[in-house]
Design brief:
Blueprint lengths: L13 H8 L4 H6 L6 H7 L11 H4 L15 H4 L4 H4 L12 H14 L8 E3 L13 H11 L5 E3 L8 H10 L5 E3 L8 H10 L5 E3 L8 H8 L5 E3 L7 H9 L6 E3 L9 H6 L7 E3 L2
Length: 283
């Protein structure tokens, strides 16, 4: 029987190309895929390719076991590997001192997604200005608040200069938020958590490393009764806050306290928590 002739690699169906491109890194979508051939260039313009600014490889690393019921996207909060491996910077660390430059680039990507209503996942670290330029955190977050009403996953990673007013604008404008990454930012404060609990009832996962405000666990338990995923690895959490998390009314299913140097009696505290929390990561 004559072997069936294979179709050329550059002549794949557009729907297949769009599905593949949507799972690639932002850098590939911007700098590589559109320049391979005409069919790839046409497919890369489809709005579905730009619904998420976070690569699929981030969501699925490490891949969950086949028997696991964990959704791959939960890695947005659960991953503990370095951020340079998680959020692939399409600009390789190059920043512009002009605050409008990053805003215009982010605006163009939102336009590629058909205006922003289809955008589900955003991290805006690559669009921040360089250290020698004025901050543009507020302008970027205001753009996200105006353009992405159906946003589900948001990373504040690397942002330090956003105002409280604009942070609250994002919280009010993105009621579909489910997973939030506060890592390397000072924004996980009681006021923001309280308003997020009111306006974003679907929050089920939070990540924060670095310095934590004292008694932040009370705000987490009070504001997010449906919180299931909490990653506090490399944070300043202490024994009192951990006690609140493992003995309170929380519905946590996953807790990461790896490399938390201020914990002293954590082995005793989590000893009885395994019956309530399915997965606890500690060292």
């Amino acid at each position: 029987m004559q072997q069936q002739r294979q179709r050329p690699w550059d002549n794949l169906p557009s729907s297949a190309l769009v599905n593949i491109f949507s799972k690639s890194s932002l850098k590939d979508r911007l700098c590589n895929l559109p320049f391979v051939c005409k069919s790839w260039a046409n497919s890369s313009r489809h709005p579905h390719c730009w619904a998420s600014f976070i690569p699929d490889s981030y969501y699925s690393f490490p891949p969950p076991p086949l028997s696991s019921s964990v959704v791959a996207v939960d890695a947005f909060v659960k991953s503990s590997f370095p951020y340079d491996a998680a959020f692939l910077d399409p600009f390789d660390g190059r920043r512009n001192s002009d605050p409008q430059c990053g805003v215009l680039v982010l605006q163009s990507l939102i336009a590629k997604a058909g205006g922003g209503a289809a955008v589900t996942s955003v991290y805006f670290l690559p669009f921040l200005t360089s250290l020698d330029g004025p901050p543009n955190d507020d302008a970027l977050l205001s753009l996200i608040a105006r353009s992405c009403p159906n946003l589900k996953h948001l990373s504040f990673h690397g942002s330090f200069n956003a105002s409280e007013e604009v942070l609250l604008e994002v919280v009010r404008s993105c009621p579909c938020l489910e997973l939030v990454d506060f890592s390397d930012s000072p924004y996980m404060i009681p006021l923001i958590l309280e308003k997020m609990g009111i306006h974003c009832p679907s929050i089920r996962g939070i990540r924060q490393n670095g310095n934590l405000q004292p008694f932040c666990s009370f705000s987490l338990v009070k504001c997010f009764p449906s919180l299931k995923l909490l990653n506090l690895s490399d944070s300043s959490i202490g024994d009192k806050d951990l006690l609140t998390l493992v003995t309170g009314d929380s519905r946590l299913e996953y807790l990461d306290i790896m490399r938390c140097q201020r914990l002293i009696r954590y082995m005793y505290l989590i000893k009885g928590a395994h019956n309530r929390i399915a997965e606890i990561r500690y060292d």
